[in-house]
Amino acid sequence: MEADETRPDPGVVEHRDELPEDVVVAEHRDELPDDLDVAAAVGDYVFPDNSRRRIPGVAHLVLGGTAVVVALAADGSTLVNGGVLLGGVALLLFGGYHLQAGWHVAHDEREALVGATRAVGFPVGHASAQMAWRGLRSRPTWRILLYSNESPPEQRGLVLVDAVDGSVVAQFVEENPEDWSAD
Q1: Can you give the pLDDT at residue 50?
Q2: How many Å is the Cα radius of gyration of the chain?
Q3: What is the DSSP string of 18-41?
């Protein structure tokens, strides 16, 4: 006798609601690390330091160095081919990049806001800060968007502040072109 194709297997549950009440279903939930979870933060939020990039950089250097040593030591082996050497060199390059791009963020967004306020030359009302990275070496830079303190704001400015040394990298100030009038 052939199996009935239309009838589902009795051991397969298609919907969660079909489970007996005594069955516990374990769920995997993706979670942010504690130091990145803004909702769980109590007090001031501290932006994570870029120097954390050095940790995977060291791991890549160790793995890459190991792969290169194995590839050179097992030259001519049937178990190790040129791909191991190529992968090891790639890991060494990648690890080196992570080490040099692991800048220490010495100036937080508050210090950047103070520098940006000095640079624009008008009293600041609303402002926002965003971390960005510039250049091949991924130097951390604060992007500060500022509005003057009038209502509605008459001027706005964008200032880039280096997060490593606190210097103003660039600034742009203009009359506010946005229409804030109510219809």
Answers
A1: 81
A2: 28
A3: GS-TT-----------GGG-GGG-
pLDDT bracket for residue 150 (50, 70, 90) = confident
Helices (H) and strands (E) in the chain, counts: 3, 4
> Distance between CA 47 and CA 36 in Å, rounded?
8
C-alpha atoms less than 13 angstroms from C-alpha of 44 in its C-beta half-sphere = 6
* pTM exceeding the 0.70 threshold for the entire prediction: no
Where does CATH 3.10.450 sit in the chain? Answer: 109-175
Provide the 8-state DSSP code for 53.
Answer: G
Class of domain 109-175: alpha beta
Structure tokens at 141: 């830079």
**Predicted confidence (pLDDT) per residue in 156-182, tens digit:** 999 999 999 999 999 999 988 887 676
Q: At what angle are helices 54-73 and 82-100 packed, to 10 degrees? A: 160
Please report, as a single letter, which amino acid is at residue 179: D
Identify the H or E element spanning 139.
strand 139-148
Distances (CA, A) of 71 to 59, 60, 78, 94, 132: 18, 16, 11, 18, 39
